[in-house]
Structure formats: structure tokens, C-alpha cells
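Researcher: Can you fold this with protoporphyrin IX containing FE in place?
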Amino acid sequence: TNEVPREKVLDNSLSLLKEGYLFIQNRCRQFQSDIFQTRLMGEKVTCISGEEAAKVFYDNERFQRKGASPKRVQKTLFGEKAIQSMDGEAHKHRKLLFMSLMTPDGVKKLGELTTVQWQDRVGKWEQMERVVLFDEAQEILCRVACEWAGVPLKEAEVKQRASDFGAMVDAFGAVGPRHWEGRKARKRAEAWIEEIIEQIRNEKLDSPEGTAAYAMAWHRELDGKTLDKHMAAVELINVLRPLVAIATYITFGALALHEHPECRQKVTKDNQDYTAMLVQEIRRFYPFGPFLGARVRNDFTWNGNQFRKGQLVLLDVYGTNHDSRLWEQPDEFRPERFRNWKGGLFDLIPQGGGDYYQTHRCPGEWVTIEAMKVSMAFLTNQIEYDVPLSEQDLSYSLVRMPSLPKSRFIISNVRRKTK
Ligand code: HEM
């Protein structure tokens, strides 16, 4: 076996905070290697990048999720003991629960609700001097998410709920106040959704069969028992929160339309194939999830490295989406690259890789794509707007995690498009 590059440092957590999305890629380039060892948060960590690395990472014989995600992430982003940290048969069973919501009709419904919500806001925006697209998108998606999931939401609570879902996501790469905001937000959301679960079970609330709320309230574990109220709430939030997080991709999408007017032209022609490619490129190109973590389940050797049981391994998500072996000129935004894409399970991995039913790959990928498609179509075909440059900073950081255009994308002079 060849020697795996090893960083001779006591701890590299600070470099991770300083280099953000590029932390793994920078080192893979420096070492000319898909794999290296470092130390993060007090432990030895192996980082891996690329399509082959992703294939290994999603091998259930070699890796498990138990003990992989730090408590701080569970207390903000995921929720404790939820699907993300399960393994084996219990995980597969829980995964079926999520996948059961992603029927063709369910996906289509989500797109329709999203379009209706966008259209509903135009009148208000026409009266506004400035519209912060990210904030509006979060609220729109919060309404969509709750309606789709069968969770009642009063108009007066939309702002708080949307911002709580946002804060849970915003906390994932944070230390300090941003982390604590995320914890507070999760506590509020869990209390709210536990109440909803209880009401469904007491038949005080009629959530239709087929909705996420109904599914979580009545789901039976392998032992035949329903989830306790808290766990049901945590898993329902695992549907609501990420639906709201699609606002991030929509905002990056608006940035893409702004920076590449030729893309806008092509969507305008109501070109569905093109819109699909545009959405894939947005998900590939812009930063969201930086990397994923798992622990070695059984000793094995790969690429010259001895993986030892229990060791933490990080898969480079951002770097794999920008790997020049997979993507020609990866740092250029080119939707057309997807025209001949073969649809690999381990190359485009913004929402994880592998098989939906067997691995931890995101069950929400289809609804994410659908929501993005209708949103890009709305922004190009149904409204016109200006992007006032003197009043905002459109740049985004590759260090801050999660990232977003700094001004959250301000638009003005919004008007309905006359066909
Ligand atoms: C898992 C990204 C939207 C529900 C994941 C994973 C990623 C991801 C990277 C982890 C994959 C792994 O651990 O191997 C995203 C991004 C989204 C998004 C960037 C866009 C905003 C959604 C939506 C839903 C959803 C809309 C639900 C409606 C979940 C769940 C898991 C997950 C439940 C855990 C799956 C498991 O552990 O088996 N997502 N996701 N996500 N996502 Fe998403």
C-alpha cells in the first residue's frame, strides 16, 4: 500500500472554519490525492473526494452513521436520534416512510402549490420598493411545506416559523450565537409540531392520509409501535425544514439567471428540458452541503489506506461536484453540460449519492428539483424585475457555511410580465 498523505497538525478545526467549502479540495489538490488524513475536533479524520470515494462512502458494509454527526448538528439541523443517524434495517424501514411521500402525484402537487404561492405574492411585491428574494422564498416555501405536509399554519405565524426553519439550517456550520439561534429555533419548532402530532392522534386535527403529518403520526416501527410524539415531530420537521431550505437554491438560481442572461432567455422559451438542466447545474455549482460524515463499520483497505473500525470519514460533497475528472471546467456555470449526462449515482451529489432506499441519499431530491423548476420558470416567465446593483452585494462566500449571496438577492420594480 502506498503512503496516504497525513497532515502533521495537532488539530485543523480552525483551518476548516477558515477554508469552508474548499477545505477538503484544497488539500486533495496540494497532496495530489483523493484521500488524506487530518485531525478535526480532537480526532483523527480521513477525508475522501471524488466519484470512487462516494461509491465507497455509500457502502453499508463499510460505513455506518451511528455516532457520525456531532451533537451540535443534531441539536440544530437534524434533530436527535433521527433518520440521519440510523443504520441497517431500522434505517431502511424509516427511509420507506419518507420515500412513501415522494410519489409522482406528491411531487407534482408540491410544484403546483409552489407556483400558486409565488403568484400570490406578486401583487404585494408590485407595491414594494425592495424585495429580498431569499426572505420571500423562505416564507413562500414555509407555506408550501406546511400545506403539502398537512400542517396547519396561520398567516400570522408564517414569519416566525419560516425564520425558525431557516435558523436550524443556518446553524450547521456555526459556532457561537448562530448555533444558539438554531437550538432555540429547533426547540420552538419541536414544541409546535409535537402539538400537531398529538392533535392528529386525538383526532382534533384532520390531516389527510398521504400527507407527511399523517404518515409521521401513524407510522409503525419494525416492532409495531408508533413513534413517540417527540420522534414523530422530529421526523416531520425533517420534511418541513429542508423544504424551506430550497429557498437557498432558488436564491442562487436567481443569481445564476442574473449573471447568465442567456440562461434566462432559454428558460423563457418555456423550454422544459433546458430548465431541468439549469436546475441540475444550480445544484452542482453553488455551495450548500460541504461534506458528509460517517464512521467505519468494519476494517477495510481502500486506495492505500487502512480504514479502522470507528474512525470518522468525511466525503467531500462540494469538491466532488467540482471535480475536473467528472465535470469539464467545473468552475464554469454551464447548464448544457447536463445534456449528455448519464445520471450517475455518485457524481452529482449535492443531496448525497447512491440508492434512495438503501442509503442515506436525500429522499427530498425530486421535490427539490420540482420546486426549483417551477420557481425558475416563475422568475423568468411570469415576472420582470430589476436587480439594483448599487444597493447590494451579490457575492457569496465559500468560507461561511451555509453560504448565500450576501444581500440575499434584492430585486426592485417587480411587475407582472405581459405575454
Ligand atoms: C438527507 C441535502 C432537500 C429530506 C440529505 C443529505 C443531504 C441533503 C446532503 C444527506 C445525504 C447523506 O447523509 O448521505 C439536501 C439539500 C436540499 C434537500 C441540499 C435542498 C434544499 C430535502 C427535502 C427533504 C429532505 C425537500 C424532504 C422533503 C431529507 C431527509 C434526509 C436528507 C429526511 C435523511 C435521509 C437519510 O438519512 O436516509 N439531504 N436536501 N431534503 N434529506 Fe435532504
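Model: Folded with protoporphyrin IX containing FE in place. The domain at 13-416 is CATH 1.10.630.10 (Cytochrome p450).
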